[in-house]
TrEMBL record:
Any Gene Ontology biological process: methylation
Chain ranges of the Methyltransferase domain: 89-188
Single GO MF descriptor: methyltransferase activity
Organism per entry: Paenibacillus sp. SYP-B3998
Domain of life: Bacteria
Keyword flag ATP-binding: no
Residue stretches making up the Rubredoxin domain: 5-43
Transcription regulation found in the keyword field: no
This protein's name: Methyltransferase domain-containing protein
Length: 358
């Protein structure tokens, strides 16, 4: 994160918010503060260390599945079923095991790694309930993915839900891909989810979920995106109400690397991976062609430069073209122009990149 702490005097500094006590404005890099705000260490040398993102814990872990739902489960399950042999799968940042527990049913072996003890407790409970007849098929390991060294290489490695972006430094991205390559079989598959925030400097979203008849949980996300830092940051708040009265509030701040599919593709290629496919929102929407490699772009139409639909019909080859759909688009109208449902102008997007180790 942009939060740093001095190992000598424990002075902490957050580049996003500055230092109100010392009059340092928000957005001031740590590097320009040397000799200005701390008389003990002077903010010089290598004493200031970046702090890791907070572990998922407390109500964030407790309510994680309630708000993440089934996103990606069927996508990854269907993808792994295409393997010629029962795959061996490593999921980095396995969390509550919501994906891993589902794919363990048709995989030879699934290993989930996470450093959050609270999340792994939930995953372990699922394992005991769902895989009680095959407990050895799903292994959970508490560890930092940066340090994880598998006993045997896997055929598939998953990095879902923006796990890769929890690391914000380029050096960390390179080191993580090298670690992934080490734990992946030659010719093995890698899947990485990229989270692209709304294309606004400031944004927010709210969800709520009824847990029990008298218990309601609200989740509010307030975010900020910085193109110059290539980061986006969000504050996630959970408010729990019982019988309409607020009982508790939990808040955590998270920081993510702001990456595009192009940037990740170049990084993967540099580390010996071949990009095979890119999906948007697990295939529920179509990526812009500008986000794809040249060999992934399908032609806009299959008609020849002078052919017409009528000519294809006469030749009995109408299956080569997309049939004309009259009145397929009906946006507009007076006085509430655009009131019909459509894609939001500033929506967030999840991109999934599939690659193979060369």
């Amino acid at each position: 994160m942009a939060l740093t702490k001095c190992s000598f005097c424990s002075y902490t500094y957050d580049e996003w918010f500055g230092d109100s006590r010392n009059g340092v404005p928000a957005g001031t890099p740590l590097s320009v503060l040397a000799g200005t705000v701390c008389s003990r260490c002077g903010l010089q040398g290598v004493r200031h260390e970046r702090q890791p993102s907070p572990k998922y814990a407390g109500q964030e872990a407790e309510y994680y599945d309630q708000f993440t739902g089934k996103a990606g489960i069927s996508f990854y399950s269907d993808w792994l079923k295409e393997a010629s042999q029962a795959p061996t799968v490593l999921e980095l940042g396995v969390g509550t095991g919501r994906i891993a527990i589902e794919i363990a049913g048709h995989s030879a072996q699934v290993c989930g790694v996470d450093w959050s003890r609270d999340m792994l407790k939930i995953a372990e409970a699922k394992k005991e309930r769902i895989l009680k007849d095959h407990p050895g098929r799903f292994e959970l390991i508490e560890a930092d993915v940066m340090d994880f060294d598998a006993r045997n290489a896997f055929s598939h490695i998953l990095c879902p839900d923006g796990m890769f972006q929890h690391y914000t430094m380029m050096a960390d991205h390179v080191a993580l891909l090298q670690r992934i390559r080490h734990n992946l079989q030659e010719g093995g598959w890698l899947a990485v989810d990229l989270l692209l925030p709304p294309d606004q400097a400031y944004w927010q979203m709210t969800q709520h979920k009824k847990i029990l008849n008298n218990k309601m949980v609200y989740k509010k996300v307030e975010g900020e995106t910085s193109l110059s830092r290539q980061l986006f940051r969000c504050s996630v708040s959970f408010e729990t109400y019982t019988d309409g009265t607020e009982q508790s509030r939990y808040r955590v701040e998270r920081e993510y690397a702001l990456m595009t599919p192009k940037e990740l593709a170049l990084l993967l290629a540099a580390e010996g991976f071949q990009i095979v496919k890119t999906y948007e929102n697990y295939g529920l929407s179509t990526p812009w062609q500008t986000a794809l490699l040249p060999d992934m772009i399908s032609p806009d139409q299959v008609l020849g430069p002078t052919e017409t639909l009528e000519e294809l019909l006469e030749a009995g080859e109408l299956e080569r073209a997309v049939p004309y759909r009259k009145e397929a688009w009906m946006n507009g109208g007076y006085p509430l122009d655009g009131a019909m449902a459509g894609p939001p102008a500033h929506r967030s997007v999840r991109m999934t990149i599939l690659a193979r180790r060369q």
